[in-house]
Design a protein that fits this description.
The complex is a heterotetramer, with two copies of chain A and two copies of chain B.
Chain A lengths: L7 H8 L5 E4 L9 H9 L5 E8 L1 H8 L3 E9 L8 H9 L3 E4 L2 H12 L4 E4 L7 H4 L3 E4 L8 E5 L5 E9 L5 E2 L7 H9 L2 E9 L2 H5 L5 E3 L6 E4 L17 H10 L3 H13 L4 H7 L2 H9 L5
Parallel strand pairs in A: 1-2, 1-8, 2-3, 3-4, 8-10, 10-12
Antiparallel strand pairs in A: 5-7, 6-7, 8-9, 9-11
Chain B lengths: L14 H11 L6 E3 L5 H12 L6 E4 L3 E2 L21 E2 L2 H11 L5 E4 L3 E3 L4 E2 L2 E2 L8 E2 L6 H4 L5 E6 L7 E2 L16 H4 L5 E7 L2 E5 L6 E6 L5 H6 L19 H11 L11
Parallel strand pairs in B: 1-2, 5-10, 6-11, 10-12
Antiparallel strand pairs in B: 2-3, 3-4, 6-7, 8-9, 12-13, 13-14
Classes of the chains: A alpha/beta, B alpha/beta.
C-alpha cells in the first residue's frame, strides 16, 4: 500500500483544479468536510461545479467566495437556520446554475458513474418539470412493455471530499457507529479522485480491529489528512453536534455580501491552521458546547 | 397511553396542536412514517399517534433511525438526538430508497411545499418564470420530486395558509400532484398522490373527479369564506363545511408536556 | 410493532406455497438458512423456483427431494466438495430448468425488484450466449448515445429465506461483524415475504445497543424463528465454520439417488426438532468441531 | 522478503509451483488482486507476489476481505480463515461490484473455465448442444460472465491441459473472449479480454491480429509438439518457443513452507 498522508494545502492544491466537478459529502447541518471546503476558498479555486445531496453552509460559503459556478443536487438548506442566502443570491444573479435532481435521480447518476454504466433508471420525477430542466435526464421506454422510466446519465465527479472518524495512512476509512449519510455510500466511488479528512489518523492495526466499520478501501483514496473537528460547524456524531451559535452567526451576516465576506475573512482566510480556525470559531468553549450534543 | 380515548375535548389549544392531531389521525399501526428536515409538526404527530391510537406505528426518524426513543422534539428533525436508541440505522443511498421505492412500505408521507396549486402540484424549486434566472431560488425538490411520482399518499402541511403558498398554478412542478386535474395523473400511470392539505386555517382534500382542492373542514373560529379569501384559487366548497375536530385535553397535555415541551413546533409559524 | 415469532412449521406452512419463487441466502458452503431448507422438504413443497447467487448443498437437497423445478442463479457448487450432483442430474434430465445469470445481472434483476423498477442495466454478459438464454435479459440502446447495455428485468421472489445471528420478536435482524454476502443486502428487499431464522432471539433492548448492526428492519420481516446452528452444515462466522465431515458424507452419496434419499431421510425427514437434527448430524462432537474453525 | 532476488534457479519444483510463479509475475504493486472459490493457485500466487516483487499488491480475499493476513492457504478460498484480520469487509452486492465495474480498480482477474476455445471464449455453463437439456450441467458463469465483457484483463489457469478443456469452439459462451477472433471483440466495443492461459504444460497468449491462442512458452520437460497434441485446436506456434522460466529456490521455499504448507494447491490437479 502507498502512503496517502497529506496536508490540506497539498491535497487540495494537487488534486483539485479550477473547473473541476467536486462532490461534497453534506447534509443540511451534518458531516461536511469543512476544512477542505475552507481550503478550496483559501486557494482561490474558481469555476468549480459542486455535487451535493443536500447542501448546507458549505454551499453558502463556496457561493459567497465565488468558488462555484454550478451545482448539481437535490436541495440546499441549513434546516432550522434557514435558506443559504449567499447561494440563493448567486443563483438569482445567474452566477451559479443549478441542475436540480430528486434524490433517486442523483443517486442514479452517481450510481451509474461508480459502476461505469451509461445511465440508471428511476421512476421518480415523472410528471414534473424537472426532467426538461436537465439534459442528463430523459424518458425511455421499458423494453419489457411497462411504463416509461427516467434514464439518469452517469455522473463522474473529478474529485470527492469526505470527512470520517478514522483513517490509516494507507487511506482505509472508518466510521464509528452512526447514521451513514448517502454521500459516503456512493459519491467517493463515482469520483475520479478522493480526498478524506479524518478526526484521527490511526495505525492500520487499529483499522483491522473492526473491518466491518471500514467504509472506503485505501485503494480508492488519494489523500488523507488528520483534521480534528474537521466537520465543524456541522455535526459529526457520535463525536460532536452541529454548532448552533456559529450557524446563527453566519445566518445573521449571510444576507449581506460585505458582512459575509468579513465573516469568511475572519474564519476562513485568516486562520492558517485548524487550531487557529477552532480558536476563531470559539475555541475550547465552543468545543465543549458541541460535545454536549447528547443533552440538547 | 391510558386515558386518551375518554379524555374530553380541549378548549385551551393552539393551531399547531390542532394541526398535529389532524396529521396524527392519518397514521395507523400498519403504517411506516418517515420525516425529513424541519418537520416539527409531522414529528409531533408521529409521536402523538404512537402515544395514543397507533402505538405500533413504525417510525423512521430523519429517514435514517428506525423506531427511535427520542424523548422530545429536538431543535432539528434531521439530527442525532431524534434517532436516539434506534433499532436500526438505515443508510440512505443504499437502503432507504430500497424500502421507499418498493411500494409496500412507507406509503404515506407528510410533506411541505413553498407553493401548492389547485391540483396538488408542488413547487420547492423556484419562484419566477425563468428556471435558470429565478426571482427566488427555493431549497430544491430533495425526495419530494420522487414521492410525487411513485405512488405515495402525500399529506401536505402548511402553517401559513395564504395566496402565495396556495396558488392557482405553481411556477414550476417539482413534485407531481394531479397535474392538470381530472384523470391526467392516472393516465400517466401514476398512482397515489396528494390526499390532504392541513393548514393553519383548514383541512383540504381533493374532489375525486376533477381533482380540484376541496374544503374538508375549517378550524374552529374560521369560516369557509375566510379560507377562500386566503387561497389563491377557487376551492371546491360543499354546501356545509364542518368544523375540524379539536384535540382532546389529553392530546394537548401530551404535546405540551411530553412530546414538545420546548415548543419547537411553534417555529414553523411565521 | 407486531410479534413475528413463529415456528419453522408454521412459517413455511403459512408463507410458502407450491409453485412459489423462493430466494435463498447461500454461497458455496456459507450462510444458508438450512433449517428452512429442510422444512421445505419435510412439508413436501413442490414446483418451487429457487433464486440463489451461488447455491451449495441446499440446492442439491432441494433437487434431490424434487422440491424445485427451476433455478435462477449465477452458480451452483460446493467449492472443494465438488459439484452438486443431484442438482446436476436433475438439470440433465430436464427436471430442473436453469436461468443462468451473471452476478451483476442477478443483482440487477433483484435490485429492480426491490426498487419497483421495470429493469436495471448491466454491461456484463455482452458477447456471451447467456443473453439469449433468458427472456428477462435484452440489449437496449443507451439513450445518451453510447454502446448498448443489457436490461435485466425486475425479479420479485414470493418469499426470501434468511439466516442471521440475532433477531428480536419484532423481526429486526442483526449480523455480528463478518463478511456480508450479497443475498442479505438485496434478496429480502426484493421478495414479497421474508422468513428469518436466527441463532438467537433477543430482547429489543439488545438490538438497540448496536443499531448499526441491524441489516433488516422488522417491518419487512414476516416471521422469525430461533434456530441455533440453523446454518449447519454451512458456515456462519464468526460463530461456526462449515462442517467438513458432513459435506464429505453428502458428496459421497450424492451421485446415487437411493443413497442420497437415505441420507435425506436420516437427517431431514426423521429428526423432528433442531436438537434431533443436530444429534443426527453428529451432536456435541460435531458442534465442537465446527466451532474450532478459527484454527483450521 | 530478503533474498528472493538473488536466489538461484530451482531444480526441485513441481508444476503447481511453476504455475504459481507464472501467475505471480502478472501482478504488480499497482494492482488489486481478487480471488473466487477453489482458487488455490491464484491465492498462492498473490501471496507469493506480496512476499517477493510486489509487497504493495492489494488483495481482496474472496472478493470480500481486504488486505487479509491469512497465514497460509486454507481448505477454502471463499471462507473466513482466508480473510483473517482484513482491513475491510466489502459487502458483495452493495459494494464489490461498485469497485469491480468501475474500471479503474480490480483490472486483472485469474479465472478458470471448464472449456476455453482458440479465441479465449470460456464456458462454465453446459456441455452439449441443447442449453436446456445439457449433457453436463456445469457450475455456472458466476462473476465470469461479467468479467469477460467489462474490460478486465483475464488470466486463465488450467491445471489439466487437454483436448476437453482447450477446445476449438466452446459449446456455450459464458464469458466473452475474442468471440470469432480478429477485431470482433473490439468491434462490439469490448476492451480488455483474455491475456494469458497458464496450464500444467505451457503458457499461452493470443496472437495480436487474429486473436488465436499462441504458444508463449513450454514448461521445462515439455515440447511444443506435446502441447499441440494435448490441445483441441491448432495453436499459433512461433518458430522457436522458449522454456517457461522456472521458479527460484526461494520462491519454492516460500510456497512450500510459508504460503501453502498443507499442499492445498495440489487439489487442483486431477
Amino acid at each position: 500500500m502507498t502512503d496517502k498522508l497529506a496536508t490540506l494545502e497539498d491535497a487540495v492544491g494537487d488534486l483539485v483544479s479550477d473547473g473541476d466537478v467536486v462532490a461534497l459529502q453534506n447534509m443540511a447541518t451534518q458531516a461536511a468536510p469543512m476544512a477542505l471546503v475552507r481550503e478550496l476558498i483559501r486557494q482561490g479555486k474558481r469555476d468549480l461545479g459542486l455535487v451535493v445531496l443536500v447542501g448546507g453552509m458549505a454551499v453558502d460559503w463556496l457561493a459567497a467566495a465565488g468558488t462555484i459556478n454550478r451545482l448539481i443536487g437535490a436541495a440546499v438548506s441549513m434546516e432550522q437556520f434557514g435558506l443559504c442566502q449567499q447561494y440563493r443570491a448567486a443563483v438569482e444573479r445567474g452566477d451559479v446554475t443549478v441542475e436540480e435532481l430528486s434524490e433517486t435521480a442523483l443517486n442514479a447518476r452517481l450510481g451509474a458513474g461508480a459502476r461505469n454504466l451509461p445511465f440508471l433508471p428511476t421512476k421518480g420525477l415523472i410528471g414534473t418539470d424537472l426532467i426538461d430542466q436537465s439534459e442528463n435526464l430523459v424518458l425511455i421506454d421499458d423494453p419489457f412493455g411497462g411504463r416509461p422510466v427516467v434514464a439518469c446519465r452517469a455522473l463522474v465527479p473529478d474529485v470527492a471530499l469526505v470527512h470520517a472518524h478514522r483513517a490509516d495512512r494507507e487511506g482505509n476509512i472508518q466510521y464509528e457507529p452512526t447514521i451513514l449519510w448517502p454521500d459516503i455510500g456512493i459519491m467517493p466511488k463515482a469520483a475520479q479522485r478522493v480526498i478524506v479528512t479524518a478526526e484521527e489518523i490511526v495505525d492500520t492495526s487499529r483499522i483491522r480491529e473492526n473491518p466491518d466499520r471500514t467504509v472506503l478501501p485505501g485503494f480508492i483514496v488519494d489523500a488523507v489528512i488528520e483534521v480534528p473537528y474537521g466537520a465543524h460547524p456541522t455535526s459529526f456524531y457520535p463525536r460532536y453536534g452541529y454548532d448552533t451559535s456559529f450557524h446563527m452567526a453566519w445566518a445573521k451576516v449571510a444576507r449581506d455580501a460585505e458582512a459575509a465576506k468579513g465573516f469568511l475573512d475572519r474564519v476562513v482566510r485568516e486562520p492558517d491552521t485548524q487550531a487557529e480556525y477552532l480558536n476563531a470559531a470559539g475555541g475550547a468553549q465552543m468545543i465543549a458546547a458541541i460535545e454536549r450534543w447528547r443533552t440538547t | 397511553m391510558s386515558d386518551w380515548q375518554s379524555s374530553p375535548t380541549a378548549t385551551d389549544y393552539t393551531i399547531d396542536e390542532l394541526m398535529i392531531t389532524v396529521l396524527a389521525r392519518q397514521f395507523t399501526n400498519e403504517d411506516q412514517a418517515c420525516n425529513g428536515m424541519a418537520s416539527f409538526l409531522p414529528v409531533s404527530a408521529f409521536m402523538l399517534a404512537r402515544l395514543t391510537h397507533a402505538p405500533h406505528l413504525t417510525w423512521l426518524a430523519g429517514a435514517a433511525g428506525l423506531e427511535p426513543k427520542a424523548s422530545k422534539v429536538p431543535a432539528s428533525t434531521l439530527e442525532s438526538p431524534l434517532w436516539a436508541d434506534s433499532v436500526m440505522y438505515i443508510e440512505q443511498y443504499g437502503d432507504f430508497w430500497n424500502y421507499a421505492l418498493n411500494g409496500r412500505w412507507l406509503t404515506k408521507f407528510c410533506v411541505g411545499a413553498a407553493q401548492l396549486d389547485q391540483f396538488g402540484n408542488a413547487n420547492n424549486s423556484i419562484i419566477g418564470s425563468d428556471y435558470h434566472r429565478p426571482k427566488v431560488r427555493l431549497p430544491g425538490t430533495a425526495g419530494l420530486g420522487d414521492m410525487g411520482s411513485i405512488g405515495k399518499l402525500l399529506y401536505y402541511w402548511n402553517p401559513n395558509h395564504g395566496p402565495r403558498s396556495l396558488v392557482e398554478k405553481v411556477d414550476f412542478i417539482s413534485a407531481a400532484g394531479y397535474l392538470g386535474g381530472g384523470s391526467e395523473r392516472e393516465d400517466m400511470g401514476l398512482t397515489g398522490g396528494p390526499q390532504l392539505v392541513v393548514t393553519n386555517l383548514a383541512v383540504l382534500d381533493f374532489e375525486p373527479d376533477s381533482k380540484r382542492m376541496r374544503l374538508q373542514s375549517v378550524h374552529p373560529g374560521t369560516t369557509a369564506e375566510e379560507v377562500q379569501e386566503a387561497t389563491g384559487f377557487e376551492l371546491v366548497t360543499p354546501e356545509s363545511v364542518p368544523e375540524t375536530a379539536p384535540p382532546s385535553v389529553e392530546q394537548v397535555r401530551l404535546i405540551r408536556e411530553d412530546i414538545d415541551p420546548d415548543g419547537m413546533r411553534k417555529r414553523e409559524f411565521r
